[in-house]
Design a protein that fits this description.
Helices cover 46% and strands 0% of the residues. The chain has 94 residues and is mainly alpha-helical. It has a domain of 64 residues. The N and C termini lie far apart (51 Å). 3% of the residues are buried. Keywords: Membrane, Plasmid, Transmembrane, Transmembrane helix.
């Protein structure tokens, strides 16, 4: 009978360095590709500010807020937009 090793944890993110994860790097690369695709719609005078803006947006989206360090900012924004606006829940202060 075969002996299989089952990993105990599969949700751990891969770290590239002290503060950069593999997902963050892939997110920035995909945002760069998206920026280059949309570059044809930007006036030549505004291309440098457009690159700066998209770089800032990319850094903000992978930033982890101190109130919820397990989520990235884009996840927090999606949860905020998708939640039901007329449903309320109690907040425990403890």
């Amino acid at each position: 009978m075969a002996n299989y090793n089952i990993p105990k944890e599969v949700t751990t993110e891969l770290k590239i360095n002290k503060s950069l994860f593999l997902f963050d790097l892939l997110f920035i690369i995909s945002l760069l590709i998206f920026t280059m695709i949309l570059n044809i719609f930007i006036h030549p005078v505004l291309q440098i500010p457009y690159y700066i803006f998209m770089g800032i947006v990319g850094l903000i989206m992978i930033w982890r807020p101190h109130t919820n360090p397990k989520k990235r900012m884009y996840q927090v924004l999606l949860i905020t937009m998708m939640r039901k606006k007329n449903t309320y829940c109690a907040i425990d202060r403890e």
